[in-house]
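Re: that backbone. Tokens:
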């Protein structure tokens, strides 16, 4: 497993954490706000303290941008990059029976206490092989070399 902290997506934006390793690639955007997060409000869209919220959509947009960057550094089609929003101080409400707490934007929103469990289990997508992990880590390093940043740590 390889972990990048404060991964520079472009000159104006970074991602809190990028994790590459079995089972897949994740971006993690921690939201340290107190309150109630509904993965699907009455209109089906995410809400924070009963107001429309764009955090999940923004994380999904970053995941797609990262996937585009990976594509530019590889001849192979990049896998899905899963956006994850851990919320250490919020109460997260999902639809009944939805363990991963997906939003309409395909981002997982969960309490921070469940983060490691969800990353390890990663329901719903194929697992990366060791050679794929190495290839995507190399692509991330190539992208990151454009920016001044710390190297990844092994998680």
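Recovered sequence:
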């Amino acid at each position: 497993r390889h972990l990048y902290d404060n991964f520079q997506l472009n000159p104006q934006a970074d991602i809190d954490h990028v994790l590459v390793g079995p089972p897949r690639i994740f971006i993690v955007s921690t939201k340290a706000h107190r309150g109630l997060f509904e993965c699907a409000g009455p209109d089906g869209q995410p809400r924070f303290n009963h107001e429309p919220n764009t955090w999940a959509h923004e994380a999904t947009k970053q995941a797609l941008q990262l996937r585009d960057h990976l594509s530019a550094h590889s001849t192979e089609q990049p896998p899905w990059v899963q956006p994850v929003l851990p919320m250490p101080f919020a109460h997260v409400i999902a639809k009944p029976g939805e363990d991963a707490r997906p939003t309409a934007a395909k981002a997982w929103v969960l309490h921070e206490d469940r983060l490691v469990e969800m990353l390890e289990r990663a329901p719903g997508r194929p697992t990366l092989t060791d050679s794929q992990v190495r290839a995507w880590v190399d692509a991330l390093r190539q992208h990151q070399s454009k920016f001044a940043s710390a190297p990844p740590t092994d998680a």
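The helical segments are 55-72, 115-121, 130-144. The mean pLDDT is 83.
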